[in-house]
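The methods section describes the discrete structure representation at length, but only in general terms. What matters is that the chain and its backbone geometry are given together, residue for residue. For illustration, here is how one protein appears when written out as sequence plus structure tokens:
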Amino acid sequence: MKSLFSFGTPAELVISITGEDSRRKEGELLVFTPTDDISGVLRVTAKKLDHGGVKVELIGVIQTTVDKGSQFEFTSSVRALSQSGTLDGSEVLLLFRHPTTSSHTFPQEFPFAFVNVDKPHESYYGKSVKLRYFVRATVVRSYAPNLTKEQDFLVQSTDVAPELNSTIKMEVGIEDCLHIEFEYNKSKYHLQDVVVGKVFFLLVRIKITHMELAIVRRESSGSGLDKLTDTETVTKFEIMDGAPVKGTLAPRTSLALDHMFNGAGESIPVRLFLGGVALTPTYKNVNNKFSVKYFLNLVLVDESDRRYFKQQEITLWRKRA
């Protein structure tokens, strides 16, 4: 946890959020649900510092590069911890220090709690947009810049399984040269799910050298002329290396997903595990500021290095936080 100001700052501020030793973390950040209360302690270490008050705020902001570094604050709550006065850690020391010991400065502690504060959106740290939650502590000073310290935390929401979850079926084709069908078992996946499907070669008169399935993330922020879209391949999985040869592929009636398909043909099974991939849920127009979408992208490459692909949007959701 970062706790120090630059050299020469008249005070050190440390924010400790309750649950640091027991609550789940992602990286260095504690994870909370939207209904969790946020509490903790602010520790201020200063030999002697006159101030105009001490406060903490719980803040949620959206920051985008489209807005040139500006930020949109969508939730905020303030707690006053101390009225104007003097912070003097050395006075606390006098009660305990032996006359022969060297002088030290003890921190003064200010407990805080944010109860029932609205946290409507999930935390998100993308390439062009961030949705942050943090606790900010401020020591107000009249004739000098205020002293501030921020401590981020994460908010994650869980959803129930969708009632409707239809299969995905698509085709890739070039007249008289290539006809491929592929189908996935559903269109909505939780973050620990498995993408299961088949790829069917109905007509192949060109030499396919490589085929892969990728998950693509598309992050959009802003609107109109200022809209910015960033596309990233999160992971990819090689389905086939080399040309399909009749008799080496599975027949259409051999897999557990046979109820999904009709007709005859050669097929390749697909299983892509999502649990080890850095994914987030799908976000749709969060506060009219940004969206995050995910796509399954099937790519075929022929011997002339021509690429054929088909992309289908999927919905991701969080089963457990």
